[in-house]
Amino acid sequence: MSKRRNWFCGSEEHRISRRGFLGTAAATAGSMSALNLLREPALAAELKKQDKRVILLWLAGGASQLETWDPKPRRPTGGPFAAIPTSVPGIHISELMPKMARCMDDTAIIRSLNTKDGSHGGAARMMHLGRRDEATVQFPDLGAVLARELGSRDSKVPDNVSFYTATEGRGNAVGQAGFLGARYLPMSLTTNSRPEDLARLESISDLEHKQRHELRELLSNRFIEYRHSNSLRSHNEAYSRVRGLMSSDKLFDISEEPQSIRERYGPSLFAEQCLIARRLVEAGTPFVKVSRAWWDSHGQNFETHLELVSELDHVMSVLLDDLKQRGLLENTMVVTLSEFGRTPQINASLGRDHFASAWSCTLSGCGIKGGMVYGATDEDGQTVKDGEIDAGDLFATIYMALGIDPHSEYYVGSRPIPLVHEEASAVTEVLA
Amino acid sequence: MTADPNNLKVIKEISRRDILFSVATLNESEVLVGSSDSNVHRMNAQDEKAEVSELSGHTSYVTGLELVGDQLVSGAYDGKLKWWDLEKKAEIRSIDAHSKWIRRIELSHNGKFLATVSDDMVCRVWDATNGNVVHELKGHQTTTPNNFPSMLYCCAFSQDDRFLATSDRVGHVVIWDLHSGKEVRTIETPDMYTWDPKARIHSIGGVRSLAFSPDSKQLVVGGMGHVGNIDHLGGKSLVEIFNWEKGERLHQLADDSYKGLVERLVFHPSGKWFIAAGGDHAGFVKCINADTGETIRDSKTSTHIHDIRLKDQQGKLITVGHGKIVLWQL
Question: SUPFAM superfamilies attached here (chain A) (predicted)?
Answer without folding.
Answer: Alkaline phosphatase-like
